[in-house]
Write a structure and sequence with these properties.
By secondary structure, this protein is an alpha+beta fold. It has 6 helices and 11 strands. 28% of the residues lie in helices and 32% in strands. The strands form 2 sheets. A 7-stranded mixed β-sheet has the order 1-2-3-7-6-5-4, sandwiched between helices. Strands 8-9-10-11 form a 4-stranded antiparallel β-sheet, with no helix packed on it. Helix 3 packs across helix 5, helix 3 crosses helix 6 and helix 5 packs across helix 6. This is Biotin.
Length: 265
């Protein structure tokens, strides 16, 4: 069964008294290559943000840095476009507020989601979902952003993944009853993350993000040397401290330069 547009709109209305998204700006598809691509095409055709594309299945979904995002039926695959006004230096904040907003709202449903730098949502040490953000720049500023989100609901997952349906035991009454409700919750989380960023600023957002970063204090090997993860910079870089001979050195690693990986044991 595909994603039910009417039920999704009802779920959105139940969560948001004044949701900043018109039902006519929600596009639902059965099988497409990529929701990010569809949203980009809609923008090129003159459609105005905010707008959302949702697919029951993607055939060419992509994660960050061109990695393939496995998108079989049963998962949540959506992309949302927003009008923005950010400096180029603030680009990493898009992923920070999106991932933090999604994690914090799922935790309100008793799903203990954490964050894995820079853009993964994790549950019980496994990957629950991920985020791929794209932006456009006009006159030196970021004027639009596309936030692509994939969440494992009841779909097949790789050994490093976990789905929400497998997280709940057979005797559990799930706090989220449907894929459509999950979609509404995820979109609400993104908007709440964005509003938190606008109202509280990047420093407060970064602090909140780091509180959910499950790798804090963990060891990581960089160029053959073991260091300790100590946080994330305002530019979205991973901070790693190296201790040797009574002295400490801290470096910042840009996204894409190192993978923290998953434990498949």
């Amino acid at each position: 069964m595909g994603f039910n547009y009417a039920q999704f709109i009802i779920e959105l209305a139940n969560l948001f008294d004044d949701f900043p998204l018109s039902p006519s700006s929600v596009y639902v598809f059965d099988t497409i290559a990529s929701t990010n691509v569809i949203v980009r095409q809609l923008l090129e055709q003159g459609h105005k943000p905010p707008l959302v594309a949702i697919a029951s299945q993607q055939t060419a979904g992509k994660g960050q840095w061109g990695r393939t995002w496995y998108s079989p039926p049963g998962g949540l695959y959506l992309s949302m476009a927003l009008d923005l006004s950010l400096s180029v230096q603030e680009l990493p904040h898009l992923t920070l507020w999106s991932s933090w907003g999604i994690a914090q709202i799922l935790r309100k449903y008793d799903i203990p989601v954490g964050l894995k730098w820079p853009n993964d949502l994790i549950l019980k040490g496994r990957k629950l979902g991920g985020i791929k953000s794209e932006t456009s720049i006009y006159q030196g500023r970021i004027n639009q952003g596309i936030i692509g989100i994939g969440i494992n609901w009841s779909n097949e997952v790789p050994p490093t993944g976990i789905s929400l349906q497998s997280f709940w035991t057979p005797h559990t009454v799930p706090p989220i009853a449907s894929l459509e409700q999950l979609g509404a919750i995820i979109l609400t989380g993104v908007f709440q993350g964005y509003n938190y960023y606008l109202s509280q600023g990047s420093d407060r957002l970064l602090y909140a993000y780091v509180q959910l970063l499950e790798s804090m204090g963990s060891s990581v090997v960089v160029n053959g040397v073991t260091g300790i993860i100590t946080g994330v910079t305002p530019q979205g870089e991973l901070k790693v401290r190296f201790d040797a001979s009574g002295a400490s050195t801290e470096i910042a690693l840009p996204p894409g330069t190192i993978s923290l990986g998953y434990d498949t044991q």
